[in-house]
Structures are given as structure tokens and as C-alpha cells.
Model the fold of this input.
Amino acid sequence: MPGSVDPLSSTHGAGSGGAGSPPIAAIPVRHPGRWVMGVVVAVLLAMLVNTLAFSHTVRSGQVQPRFQWGIVGQYFTSAPVLRGLVVTLELTVISMAIGIALGVLLAILRLSPNPLLAGASWLYIWFFRGTPVLVQLLFWYALSYVYPQLTLGVPFGPAFVHLDANTLITPFVAAIMGLALNEAAYMAEIVRAGIQSVDIGQSEAAQSVGMSRLMTLRHIVLPQAMRLIIPPTGNETISMLKTSSLASVTAVTELLLSVQNIYSRTYQTVPLLMVASLWYLIVTSVLTVGQHYLEVRYSRGSAQQTPLTLFQRFRLSFLPSHVNPSTIPSAMIEGRSFGE
Amino acid sequence: MTRDMVVAEGVCKSFGRLRVLSGIDLTVMKGEVSCIIGPSGSGKSTFLRCINHLEKIDAGRLSVDGDFVGYQQRGNKLYELSDREVNSKRAQIGMVFQRFNLFPHMTALQNVTVGPLRVKSHDSSKANEIGTRLLERVGLSDKMSAYPNQLSGGQQQRVAIARALAMEPKLMLFDEPTSALDPELVGDVLDVMRSLAEDGMTMIVVTHEMGFAREVGDSLVFMDGGVVVESGLPKDMLAAPQQERTRAFLSKVL
Done:
């Protein structure tokens, strides 16, 4: 058409293209559906904030805030709650540490050429994944009923040390055993998948340099498997933080039992459950940030980019021009899925 | 001491019901550069992997520098080697792979020094000295701290050669070292291999580079169907192959 400007054949480009063609100045595609859904979600969010923060209800003849945030604040940093939080963190850290160590060992056994070792590992995983963790916790708690005396000695031979199970296996120890041994079964499968994802050529190259099987595993295969092991391990840690609340059933005064102890006296059930929930959320958030940095650390030397954080995705979808292209992983630009 | 580095007599290897090697006879002398050519599936790579204990042979005899591969002869009996013994044999044989197989989580220098550090238990200063010298030798002194994904294919393959050399091998095996490279990167890798040959390294090279075989190779071996069909001086064989199968193959690749 005469008179109209063809955006693609413009010869007086904006200059940023240098010697080549001018940059494309196209009208972006509109996404009306996205805006409609955005409005729906915004309304729902507003309703949620309203009911949480501003709504009231009638309790024993008085108009009171529906969620008693004052009581939440009152107990949020109280001594019993903080003590419970510390116990929860102890349970999580110790159980995960044992679970990871034992899981790596089980994964290595599972991949061993010795069928007896591989079978033993398979049996362990079968048992501990096949029974509920709550049942396992109760079982370890009740262990002293089956084994009142624990002895150390030659199998089927003389014993050297006798220990009283009741003093050795406190509720805390029983909870650690239950959580850690269960976790090891899941970690074993995660580690095994990671190890098996590493190209066989890597092991062959390591062996052709003269490295032994264990050296190859330790220095070549596991460091590369870490990239696949870290993200699910982060999930497992977050999951463990919350699963540790089951230990409240076996009389370990962790975060949940601490608030239960309080509301069984004061009957302020909901505010105290909010206290516990907020603490779980806070610790989970900290763990999530830590996981992100671990992933960056272990993706070193790999072609695959670390996934974008939610914040980066927000900036990219709503304010595309504000994002420096050099910081966007190529996977994002090419529209490939980054949810792996 | 024997003058032979590798002696194969009737070497057979099957994967399940698939017979890959059906009686390989081949002798490679010390200091010799032997180039193996042949169509894909002819068993060239498998034969190389057998020499480096990556595959176990089913029948025949295969020896490197006078010792059987995978076995030890005491009296009239053959004893299987332990893992530890196999590892120490492997350490004396360098291998370069078609797909480089560099360790992606290590820098070029770390790739080269990992063998001296872990297998030979050198201290890090000695290992670094070896690594620096070898990376200089393959023309990569400016890439010491680069990770493999920051290197071109040709550069990666030269790091892989340096990694193998760091163990001071008495024999180098090359499994199609230039097949995964862009054409313009092949030359640098072949130059490194040529200089190795000039230094007297014993080399067995599975390759499709006929020019390299002609110029650098002391002998040329044509394999097909799991056997050595023909071998001889590269110049003679490329000019006037004796066997019909060799002629047919060469007419396709030359």
C-alpha cells in the first residue's frame, strides 16, 4: 500500500542494530484471558485477606476478631513455642543427615554387582517405603517392649555390653530412628536415580585413567549426580520439617506438641495452630532459598540453566522490557519447559 | 623383553547372541602407529575396548606388553585379575573417546590432573606441573581454567588426549577421535596425534581419516565382520588393496 510504513523494511533503524538490520518493532500479542483470570484471582485474594484480617465473629456474647491475631502475637515468640521450634529443627536436621548418609549407602549397595548386597538394599527400601512413617514412629517408640535389654556382642555368641532399652531409646531417639530410617529409603531411590543419570562414558573415562569403582563414584559420578539429587533432597528436607510433627504422637515436645500443650490449657486452639503454621512457613521459606543457591552451586559446568525463580518469572511476564536479556536463561527465551 | 606391544590371537567377543569379534589376529609393535579402518559395526571400537579391559573377551588370547589382558598366567593356569590389578593395567593404557567424555564438573586442568592426583597419589603441585606441561603441549595453555562446555569440540578432544597422557601410558588407544568434530577442528587434533607419533608413542587409532593413516600410520588394518580382512603398509593398501572387501570399502570412503 502506498503511504503506509512497512516496519520490516525501514532503512532508518533506531541505530542499536549497528551495521545490521534495525530491531523488530512489533505490537505484542494481547492476552485478554490472562487479565480476566488475574482479576478473578485478585478478588479471591482480597476476600482471603478480608476474612483473615478484618472479619469478626460473635464469641460468648462478644464481637471478636475471627482470627485472634493478638493471641498469635502473644505466643509467637513465647519460650515453650521457641523450645518446640528448636526440637523440630533438631529432628529435621539429624534425621535428614542420617537419612542422606544411609540413603547414599543404600543406593551404592543397590547398584553393587554383588546380588546379596543389592538384594538387602532392595529389601530395606521395600519395607521402609511400604509401611507408614507414623506406624514406624510408634514401632520404635514401643521397641523397649520387644527388646527390654539391648546387648552388644558376637552374633549368637557371648555378649559384652548390656543396655537398658528404656534409658537408651528416649522418645527423641525413637523419633530420630523412625524419621531417619524411613527417609533413608526415599533418599536411596533419589540418589540411585541421580547416579544412573550420569552418562556411562564418564565412568569409562575415569576407569581408563585407572580410577577404581569407588574413586569413580566419589570423584566423577556423584558430583555430577548432585545436580539431579539436590532438588528432590530439598523437597525431602521441607517434607521432613513437617513430617517431624508426627513425633508429637510419641511424646516428643516439638513445635506442634508445644502449641497443643498450650491450647489444651487455654482452649485457644486456632490462634496457636496459626503460631505453629507460621513457624513452619518461615522455616520452609528459608530452606527454599537455601535450596536455590545449592542448585546454582551444583549446576556448575553443565549446559542446563538453573530454573527461574517465581520473582524472575513475574518480571518477565508482566514487565518484559525491564528484564535484562543477558540474565534470562536461554531455555526461557526458547519457550522450553523449565519445570524439571 | 618383547618387541610386541599388543598381540591378539583369535580374539572373540559376543554381546548376548550378537557376535562382534570373531577371531581377531593382530600384532602391534612398540613405537608403531596402527590405524584401524572399517565399516561401522565391524568391531573396531569393541576391539579397542577389549584392549583397555572395558570389555572381557570370550575366546582367544590378547596381551599387552607381554601380559594377558584380564588374566595372569602362573604355571599352566590362567588366573582372573582382581579389580585392583585391572585398574593398574588400565592406568598404563591411555584411551581417547569419540565423544571426549571429559568430566564436565572439572576445569581442563582438573581433568588432566585427576589421574595423577587420585591414581598416582602425586601431590597437587606435581600434578599441576604435569597438567600445565601437557595442556601446553596440546596447545591449550590459555584454557587451563575453562570448563569443558566452554571449549570447542577440538579443544575438548585435546584436553582428553592430555588427560590420557598424564598417566604416562605405554600405549594410546584412539576411538574415532575426530568423528564427532566439525571439519575445521579436525586438523588441530590430528596435529597433536602426529606429534605424539613422532615422539615414538605406540598408538592404535580407529579412524576414518585416510590422510592421517597414510602419512602417520606405520600400518593399516581393515576390519569387517569382526575379523581383520587385510593389513599392511598404509601406502600400499590404499593404493592397491588385495581383498575385494577392502577395495569395495575404500572406493566408498576415498
Q: What stands out?
A: Chain A has 14 helices and four strands. The interface with chain B takes residues 199, 201-202, 204-213, 215, 219-220, 223-224, 300-303 of chain A (CB under 8 Å).
